[in-house]
Amino acid sequence: MKYLISERIALSSPIGVFTYTLDRYSNFLFMDTPQIKSILEKIKTVKVAVYGDFCLDAYWIMDSRKSEISIETGLQAEAVEKHYYSPGGAANVVANLSALEPAQITVIGVVGDDIHGRELTAQLQKLGADTRSLFIQKEHFQTYAYLKRYIEGVEEPRIDFGVYNKRSEEINARILVGLTNALETHDAVIFNQQVVGSITNDSFIEKANALFEQYSDKIILVDSRHFNDRFSNVYRKVNDVEAAHLNGVQVEPRTMLPRATVLEYGQSLFAQSQKPVFVTCGARGITAFDAGGYYEHLGLQLTAQLDTVGAGDTVISAITLCLAAGISPNHAAQFANFAAAVTVQKLFITGTANGEEILAVSQDPNYIYQADLAENPRQAVYLPDSETELCDPSVLDKLGHIKYAVFDHDGTISTLRHGWEAIMEPVMMKAILGDSYDTIDAAGFKKVQRETQEFIHKTTGIQTIYQMEGLVNMVREAGYVPEDQILDKFQYKQIYNDALMELVNQRMAKLQAGELDWEDYTMKGAVAFLHELKARGVVMYLASGTDVDDVRHEATVLGYADLFDGGIYGALREYTKFSKKMIIERIIRDNNLNGNELAVFGDGPDEIREGRRSGGISIGITSNEIQRHGHNFDKRPRLVKAGAQLIIPDFSQYRKLVSLLFKEEAISATV
Q: What confidence score (pLDDT) does residue 350 get?
């Protein structure tokens, strides 16, 4: 649980005195595996009903080879390579419920007398749902269906069915009877409204509200896209923009509201209803509000390609099942956060999350820290007369005890491999597109390029082999390369490594020829900083995602290998036996360290995240590898999100940094 306490902080340090407002949080513990397993078992006893707009999502993957030319029209016919259908809207809520295996699921709603309605009903029954309250309206109603055509991996304009439906009074009355029965016999009801115009009669809303008042002791969770403000006596699941609207503030869709604003809106909604409220903020996670306060659950860093369609359905399903099983809003939100992290990684389908998948995500989550600060550099606070950004003021209480330090290599100390991203991108692009690399249209090429750049950006700092593992998945998902021509991760790594080493070897040759020296390939002040740490007895480790033999060789050539008395580590052929996480955990375990005795330095999110997770001090380097000094502000957002507590551009102010880290002059924080 997190409680917000705003304090006015005066900080005095070796580099100045300054004052600003700090938001402090109390510590809280995340659920462990036994707790999640317990929740999964309790969910199996729950009976839940779902009212809503039941939809069918249709996916047509078009074949670029086309079909015949129509004899009747003379027009070129399209060919469909494959097609499949999945539950959408409230039906996807049912699919998510079914994945968690509750005791009973009842659906309440309407479909048309058409092929889509029959397919949807069959799918709901296959999911184990009781469809006796899924009524058929024969006139003026088509089953809501959304046809999505993909041509060479690019989604074409959607084709919608049921846009101008009008539900009959008879169907409304039957739905209300179904809701009444569910409220009497089930543990919880989900009221899910997503389609524009799906409720066309005000009297239906009035009668539903009368039911909600009558059964006000029941768990009724409302997620309504267009009528949120019309319902009372309900729990709410809203996104941040919807929370703003319910507070009378109009903001544009997809606006990223500041965290403090979201907290204000959520607390206001709970104060009005006195029933739990859950506010989702996309990648920034979920916050639950109840009589005990509010509970923030940070979003998760995910390196895979993402598809957020249907994530809201996952959230409301997981939250409702938890609440119905007697789980607190705090833990319900955390459980739902893990569930959503599963489904957003499932592409080209409105995915679900089962218990095993949720457990897997919860084992070792990578959280997104301070998303607002990451995206808005105007909020940055710098220590006076310094280029050091203070991202997490609580770190000041931890300084002065450093005995061990872990350094990333490339981009943190060395610039020998500068430009690796520009080499990896075309390697990945050619792998993904195969023979289509030279012929694909500009839009398709740009789409793949954008996804490739995003993947490289997210995975900076991890072992190359894991990046190549991701590449294999991207090649397979894109569908341009026949299955029998897809290489494995080791083969793709070799192609990339050969291209990169050609560049590195050219630079090494200049060193060996005396045309350039070590200062031309190291970050400003980095080696001097290493010597300062060595003089203070700090045991240092070098840990890189690059192959270990290459790391050792490059550190030796640049002249600082001997400073790393803790060891030099890098990727191994048996790649599962090395990671920066393993190194950090081993240092802490073998030396029985407190977190504040370890500092981690790096320009990638991997080492920063592991340093923060371990309780250590994480210092991010926004290194400009071309100049070898100054900021590359493109690195800043990912370092802040990974949990960097301090950020520096380079080590040019290493004397000030040493003084800060070792508290060689007093640093105090007072309210």
A: 65
SS3 assignment for 306-362: CCCCCHHHHHHHHHHHHHHCCCCHHHHHHHHHHHHHHHCCCCCCCCCCCHHHHHHHH
Burial of 167 (0-12, 13-18, 19+ CB in 10 A): buried
The arithmetic mean of pLDDT across residues 314-334, rounded, is 96
Q: CB count, 10 Å around CB of 382?
A: 14
Beta strand pairing status for 404-407 and 539-547?
Answer: parallel
Same fold, 33-363 and 371-415+521-662: no
Q: Which of 134-148, 163-177, 233-247, 456-470 has the lowest mean pLDDT?
A: 456-470
Q: Residue 473 burial by CB count (10 A; 0-12/13-18/19+): exposed, middle or buried?
A: middle
Cα gap 129→110, rounded to integer Å: 14
* CA gap 575, 440 in Å, rounded: 35
Nearest to 275 by CA among 263, 294, 288, 290: 290
In sequence order, which ranges of 22-155 are alpha helices (DSSP H)?
A: 33-43, 90-99, 115-126
* Predicted confidence (pLDDT) at residue 18 exceeds the cutoff of 60: no
Burial 225-249 (b: 16+ CB within 10 A, else e): bebbeebebbbbbbbbbbbbebeee
Q: Which CATH number fits domain 33-363: 3.40.1190.20, 3.40.1360.10, 3.80.30.20, 3.40.50.450?
A: 3.40.1190.20
Mean pLDDT value of segment 425-437: 95
pLDDT one-digit tens code per residue, 576-620? 777 888 889 999 999 998 889 999 999 998 899 999 999 999 999
Distance CA 583, CA 593 (A): 13
Find the range with the poorest average confidence among 180-184, 244-248, 372-376, 667-671. 667-671
Tell me, what's the pLDDT at 578? 74
User: What burial letters (b/e) apply to 476-515, b meaning 16+ CB within 10 Å?
Assistant: eebbbbeeeeebebeebbebbbeebeebbeebbeebeeee
Contact 93, 351 (CB under 8 A): no
Report the DSSP pairing between strands 154-155 and 144-151.
antiparallel
* Architecture (CATH level 2) of domain 371-415+521-662: 3-Layer(aba) Sandwich (3.40)
Give dist(CA 519, CA 628) in Å, integer: 9
Tell me the domain boundaries of the chain: 33-363, 371-415+521-662, 420-513
Residue 25 has pLDDT above 60, yes or no: no
Integer Cα distance of 639 and 616 in angstroms: 15
Whose structure tokens read 């990169």? 500
What token pair was written down for 187?
A: 């543990």
